[in-house]
Amino acid sequence: MARIIGIGAGAVGLGTAMLLARDGHDVVVLERDAPPPSASADEAWTTWQRRSVNQFRLPHFLLARTRKILDTELPDVARAVEDEGGLRMNPLLQIPEEIRGSERPGDGEFECLTARRPVFESAFARVAEGTDGLDVRRGAAVESLVVDTAAARPTVIGVRTAEGDELRGDLVVDLGGRRSAMPKLLADAGLPTPVEELDDSGFMYFGRHFVSSDGSVPFALGPGIMHLGTITSLTLPADNGTWGLVIVTNAKDRALLGLRDPDRWETVFKSLPLVAHWLDGTPLEDGVVTISKIEDRIRTYVVDGAPVATGVVAVGDAGACSNPSQGRGVSIGMLHGTVLRDTLRSAGLDDKDEFALAFHEATESTVRPWFEWTRSGDRHRLAEVDAMIDGKPYKPDDPAFEMERALGAAATLDPGCLRAGISATLVLTPLDESLRDAGLRARALELGASWRDQPVLAPSRDELVAMATA
Predict the structure, then answer these.
(1) Tell me: the pLDDT tens digits for 158-189?
(2) Count of beta carbons in the 10 Å neighbourhood of residue 346
(3) Is residue 440 within 8 Å of residue 434, measured between CB atoms?
(4) Rounded to whole angstroms, how far apart are CA atoms 400 and 377?
(5) pLDDT (tens digit, 9 = 90+) per residue, 53-77?
(6) What percent of the chain has pLDDT over 70?
(7) Where along the chain do its domains lie?
(8) How far apart are CA 360 and CA 91, in angstroms?
């Protein structure tokens, strides 16, 4: 088995490290940030700071793909999240039966297990600390790579920390998330860097957390993410009777920057009839948590059929990161971790080029489709908001966009359309795979043909701007 060095100890980093360690590898994970407090979920929420993770305090929701991987591969982590007060809930089965139809075999797959980010990361950390074959070293920042330049292709064989420690291994795994420094580390070592496809996702997020007095969370009157004219609302149940609420805008929409003010933010949320009742709780922050300049980015470590370097791979957001309002990051990252584990099983590390190519191919077939779907959706949504601000209809020449919107409109009329949409949203079954069913496609196009005529349950653009600037 291999000696593996991981850089980064977020949920995906620790989840991947545990998968590898439990497969017999010797794994060391280096993390620059301090460890979580050990006492409780409340202490993790109030005191733990992850300065290297810019979205750490933003509301989060863990999708069904994450729950499925945890239940199947890391059940003790799932139990630890629940022990911290994590919430198990099935978004499909919360929908009235007259809309979703009677329960079907397989509907349990839609179950989610979720918590606020500091809470679920502390649960991952607690289990990782007790995992045989895994050594998590916190407060250890990686400063440079150790490279074997005598090999036929430049090969990364280890790392050096800021404290001067040198660790060598068979494989370095970049688990550093959105702010990964791996391209710079490679360049500083004189090595080629991965090819990067990069878009600013173009959104700005205005979020707050709330807690109930009785440990309950509000009932959902609609999906967790709803496009409401030129804004999007997120309602995200979490642990211990808490939840997160987010208003998402186009980052260029300066008329809505007033949502940074808690009173204006609350006024706008109160004006949204399907989600206003989610304000019935006590805020956990005094202000509004904001974030922007979040990227849709994918890095490719194989160019023209050859690795840029061997001995190093990227997993999760370090390899492919996307718009966090979709909530797909941890699920895609954990899926990517299983891809790495399985590639090590099938290809091994005896031939570093063969391993690099095999992992690249598996990443392209497993991770890239989810990334491309998210990026396409982001581009359409930004263009749609721009058109709405200008008072124009948005009619792109893209059959996939029309199909997806029709499916969404048909979801309240056809249980099959509903399940196909939710399964894709929860990173279970890709939408294009479900839409290979000709009958499903036909029903979606027929029942959802008038999706543009559906009323928007939100204030007009002028009313929205007035509330955000009052």
Answers:
(1) 999 999 999 999 999 999 999 999 999 999 99
(2) 10
(3) yes
(4) 10
(5) 878 889 999 999 999 999 999 999 9
(6) 100
(7) 3-199+294-370, 203-292, 395-452
(8) 33
d(CA 307, CA 193): 10
As a whole number of angstroms, the distance between CA 342 and CA 216 comes to 39
Q: Report pLDDT for 154.
A: 86
- Which two three-digit tokens encode residue 338? 């299983």
Which residues neighbour 87 within 8 Å (Cβ) at sequence distance 6 or greater?
112, 113, 114, 115, 217, 237, 238, 239
Type of residue found at 418: L
413, pLDDT greater than 80: yes
Instruction: Give the domain 3-199+294-370 fold.
Output: FAD/NAD(P)-binding domain (3.50.50)
* Average per-residue pLDDT for the chain: 96
**Structure tokens given for 192:** 């080629």
Instruction: Give CA–CA dist 405/399, Å, rounded.
Output: 10
Q: What's this model's pTM, rounded to 2 decimal places?
A: 0.96
What is the dihedral sign for C-alpha 131, 135, 141, 147?
negative
Residue 336 amino acid letter: H
As a three-state string, the secondary structure of the chain is CCEEEEECCCHHHHHHHHHHHCCCCEEEEEECCCCCCCCCHHHHHHHCCCCCCCCCCCCCCCCHHHHHHHHHHCHHHHHHHHHCCCEEECCCCCCCHHHHCCCCCCHHHHCEEECCHHHHHHHHHHHHHCCCCEEEEECCCEEEEEEECCCCCCEEEEEEECCCCEEECCEEEECCHHHCCHHHHHHHCCCCCCEEEEEECCEEEEEEEEECCCCCCCCCCCCCEEEECCEEEEEEECCCCEEEEEEEEECCCHHHHHHHCHHHHHHHHHCCCCCHHHHCCEECCCCCEEECCCEEEEEECEECCEECCECEEECHHHCEECCHHHCCHHHHHHHHHHHHHHHHHHHCCCCHHHHHHHHHHHHHHHCHHHHHHHHHHHHHHHHHHHHHHCCCCCCCCCHHHHHHHHHHHHCCCCHHHHHHHHHHHCCCCCHHHHCCCHHHHHHHHHHCCCHHHCCCCCCCHHHHHHHHHC
What is the assigned CATH class of domain 203-292?
alpha beta
> What is the C-alpha to C-alpha distance for residues 78 and 72, in angstroms, rounded to an integer?
9
